[in-house]
Amino acid sequence: MTLRAGVLAVQGDVSEHGDAIERAAAAHDRTAEVVEIREAGLVPDCDVLLLPGGESTTISRLIHREGIAEEIESHVEAGKPVLATCAGLIVSATDAQDDRVDTLNVIDVSVERNAFGRQRDSFEAPLDVTGLNESFPAVFIRAPVIDYVGEDVEVLATWDDRPVAVRDGPVVGTSFHPELTEDPRIHDLAFFDSVES
């Protein structure tokens, strides 16, 4: 069975995300058809969505202008899986602590943009993630910090005593970039019922 995976592509190169989704699907003996979402009308036909990193104010502006935001919200309301990474997490939050970001309100968290530092402060760290048997090599680049978690949100991983991966219903959000590793387990966690390590 082919998994139709939408990757929000309104800003920047998203090829790593497509590769990561294909690796995750292959781990489950499935294939993935990756659809780059740049305009309205494509999200309703997707089984899963990936909201990638980038610049959150730009992403927010473009998805609302293009009519994609409402489709993402409907996707979540239908219980379909979403993985939101870095800026995708910011845009998905209930509070981005920045009036320039019109959030989707699909993850009940408050996030602070770039709180782990600027580009030069990027780092990789092994994370213990709920549901994974071994640590995950998380890559943090201008990463946001989650500083409030709603009562129905499950914290999946922390770094320096701060949440960096969460699940709110069908949506998994990460402060880090799982697509920058060869390890598909975060995508497994977000998109499939079982996780293989």
Characterization of the model:
- With 197 residues, the protein is α/β, with parallel strands linked by helices.
- It has one domain: Rossmann fold (3-Layer(aba) Sandwich), CATH 3.40.50.
- It contains five helices and twelve strands.
- The chain has helices at residues 15-26, 56-65, 68-77, 87-92, 185-191; strands at 2-8, 31-37, 48-51, 82-85, 93-95, 107-112, 123-127, 136-140, 145-149, 154-159, 162-168, 171-174.
- The strands form three sheets. The chain has a seven-stranded mixed beta sheet, sandwiched between helices. A three-stranded mixed beta sheet has the order 5-6-9.
- Strand 10 and strand 11 form a beta hairpin.
- The two termini are 22 Å apart.
- The model has no long low-confidence stretch (mean pLDDT 91).
- The active site is at 86 (nucleophile), 177 (charge relay system), 179 (charge relay system).
- GO terms for molecular function: glutaminase activity; pyridoxal 5'-phosphate synthase (glutamine hydrolysing) activity.
- Pfam families: SNO.
- L-glutamine binds at residues 54-56, 113, 141-142.
By CATH reckoning, the class would read Alpha Beta
The largest pleated sheet is described as: 7 strands, mixed
Mean pLDDT: 91
DSSP strand count: 12
Global Rg: 15 Å
Portion of residues within helices: 10-25%
CATH architecture: 3-Layer(aba) Sandwich
Overall, the morphology is globular
Low-confidence stretches: none
Order of helices and strands: EHEEHHEHEEEEEEEEH
CATH topology title: Rossmann fold
Per DSSP, what share of the residues sits in E-state strands of 2 or more residues? 25-35%
Total number of domains: 1
- Strand sequence of the main sheet, in spatial order? 2-1-3-4-12-11-10
Span between termini? 22 Å
Looking at this structure, what is the CATH superfamily?
A: Class I glutamine amidotransferase (GATase) domain
**Number of distinct helices:** 5
Structural class: alpha/beta
GO cellular component, one term: cytosol
EC number: 4.3.3.6, 3.5.1.2
Pathway: Cofactor biosynthesis; pyridoxal 5'-phosphate biosynthesis
GO molecular function, one term: pyridoxal 5'-phosphate synthase (glutamine hydrolysing) activity
